[in-house]
Amino acid sequence: MTAMHDAQNLDWTLPYASHRSAVMGRNIVSTSQPLAAQAGLRMLLAGGNAVDAALAAAMALTVVEPSGCGIGSDGFAIVWDGKELHGLNASGRSPAAWTPDYFAKLGGIPEKGWNAVTVPGAVSAWVALSQRFGKLPFAQLAQPAIDYARNGFPVSPVIARLWELGFAKLGDQPGFAECFAPGGRVPRAGDVFRSEAHARTLELIAATNGEAFYRGELAEKMAAHSQANGGAMTVEDLAAHQADWVGTVSQKFGDSVIHEIPPNGQGIAALMALGMLDALGVGSQPLDGIDSVHLQIEAMKLAFADLHQYNADIDHMRVDPADLLRSEYLRERAALIDPARAGDPAYGAPRPGGTVYLAAADANGMMVSFIQSNYMGFGSGVVVPGTGISLQNRGHGFTLEPGHANEVGPRKRPSHTIIPAFAMHADGTPQMAFGVMGGPMQSQGHAQMALRVLRYGQNPQAAADAPRWRVTGGKGVAVEPHFDAAVVEQLRARGHEVTVEAGNGVFAFGGAQLVLKQGGVYVAGSDPRKDGCAVAF
Predict the structure, then answer these.
(1) What HEC string does 85-138 produce?
(2) CA atoms of 209 and 213, how far apart (whole Å)
(3) 90: closest CA among 373, 421, 316?
(4) What's the CA gap between 508 and 443, in Å, rounded?
(5) What three-state secondary structure class fits 536?
(6) Helices H, strands E: what count in the chain?
(7) Of the candidates 15, 14, 12, 33, which has an alpha carbon nearest to the alpha carbon of residue 161?
(8) Is the dihedral angle over the CA atoms 63, 69, 72, 77 positive or is it negative?
(9) What pTM does this model have?
(10) pLDDT, tens digit, for every residue of 323-352?
(11) d(Cα 282, Cα 293) in Å, to the nearest integer?
């Protein structure tokens, strides 16, 4: 990847408050980066459908937003095909050599390097979705991304800042500097950046329908690079990968039904929190007032206590996900909430008596909720030389706690943070595709977006703009700087340990994209914390 020239010396800060309107249309794409949204729109204008648009945008994001995803990411999707809902889990599994003893010798599971990398699944998501639902040729979907990589794209101020932070943390990882900091520096805002290696890799993936990535030339390069740098990934591990159609898990929420991908994703925590809030009758209090916010935080803490205890590869879970969503169990958990005091809950006993996001929709009624991610920014920091393939660090999501359902093991999926969400009307018609990027913020963000739009009737853009909170463990809660100061003090008075987190909210509070169906049109909101952009016609 090479820089073409320096940007003009502009001040890229945005010192004044601003408001954006929700975007409306019969065909719509909402992403975290304008160039990616345009890539999706190109597919719709070429006669493609919402899946084609989502995949073109997803591929483009690996180029124009490498600080959040790459060709070596994982992916998940929920698709309304016009008649029914489908859920896809394309997260990767661990190498066959990964055992507790393997990591005991390393002193733990690292955050970076090859020993944090599980088999990357995003490419398999692209192929599976295109083959099942797409209208346009797969190679056509990749063309905008290839063009951005080969001919260059201007780096936005938000991405430039995240790039700088990523280099400071990962610049020593094999292949990272060569790809993302040629000449010893990362791009500045406004620099035009190219990556011929990334373009060639996307062309090869497109020409082989992903086969080169899992069972061909690219797989061999990944495995060789792993072996040369102390990793365990093999060509056999890559060849064994498959994306799985898994359906969804769901929770009634008022007149809506919220759908998430089943574990290993963390979406079930959002469903649990919403189920508890329904049981508590949340909605009568002012949306941003202390009573509503307190109950939201407490419900999320209870959901996370269970998530951290039970969530894992579904084939290794010791409770059925349905047991965590039983109405009786959620009412029992909700009853533990003190409306006047912060709690520090433990996990329950649910036994029966039991991190880039985008959305697209088209005029024929197809809606897509899609997410792909490296996990922690640039992920592991590993980039396979000459390919532009940057790899996630999903292996860090495992635990070494003996006997835990999420204990590391061979060919196993780790507990996962990235999750797409979808809301249906109670009558079985589609309502909203939505998601919030940002590690453990995602299920918390889902609960907040669902509450704002589906319970309080906020428009999607207002919901994306609104200040957010995030539980941090124990009685800890972080809030954004523009959170109501009076509510912050009221939370503290109830025993919450509140911190106001300044700085880059993308890492801490995520970025939301929402597409709501209203009659024959769609209404989209996109997050200003990133370069959120919705385009429509």
Answers:
(1) EEEEEECCCCCCCCCHHHHHCCCCCCCCCHHHCCCCCHHHHHHHHHHHHCCCCH
(2) 9
(3) 373
(4) 13
(5) strand
(6) 19, 22
(7) 12
(8) negative
(9) 0.95
(10) 999 999 999 999 999 999 999 998 776 654
(11) 10
Structure tokens at 503: 């700085």
d(CA 398, CA 486): 39
- Which tokens go with 482? 């523009």
CA distances from 360 to 123, 175, 453 (A): 19, 33, 18
**Helical (H) or strand (E) element with 158:** helix 157-170
Q: How far apart are CA 157 and CA 154, in angstroms?
A: 10
Q: Using CA atoms, how far apart are residues 78 and 90, in angstroms rounded to an integer? A: 11
- 31 as an active site residue: the answer is no
Which of 31, 355, 387, 417 is labelled catalytic? Answer: 355
> The tokens of 200 are what?
């060639």
In the structure, what pLDDT confidence band is assigned to residue 5 with cuts at 50, 70 and 90? very low
| Helix ranges (DSSP H) in 425-471 | 441-450, 460-465
Taking alpha carbons only, the member of 156, 270, 97 closest to residue 530 is: 156
Please state the rounded mean pLDDT for residues 421-426. 97
CB atoms within 10 A of CB 151: 12
Distance of CA 37 to the CA centre of its chain: 16
Question: Which element (helix H / strand E) includes 469?
Answer: strand 469-473
In 265-385, where does DSSP find H-type helix?
267-279, 290-310, 321-324, 327-334
Could you tell me which residues are beta bridge partners of residue 74? 373
Cα-to-chain-centroid distance, residue 366? 21
CB within 8 Å of 93: residues ≥ 6 apart: 118, 119, 237, 240, 241, 313, 411, 412, 413
Tokens of 235: 């060509």
